[in-house]
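User: structure tokens for this one?
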Amino acid sequence: MLSALFPLVYGSVFVFLLVQAFRMMRLSSSSTPPTNSRSRTDRTGLLTTHPELLDANGSITGEDLLVMHFPGQDRPEASITD
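Assistant:
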């Protein structure tokens, strides 16, 4: 009896998980903005500035920053300037 019920339970769980996977992929693809538009906001909706970039007055510092380049990377990231 149990050996006849196992394929049915296994198949129904497999179909359920497959449907859930496609459902999650559909929901995640519809909520993401297009990749070609650059958004300047993070998940909170606010622009995040790292505290290391701020001076004593709370303004963004004008000092030169250390930049590291790694071999094997073809394109450097585009910097956002105001």
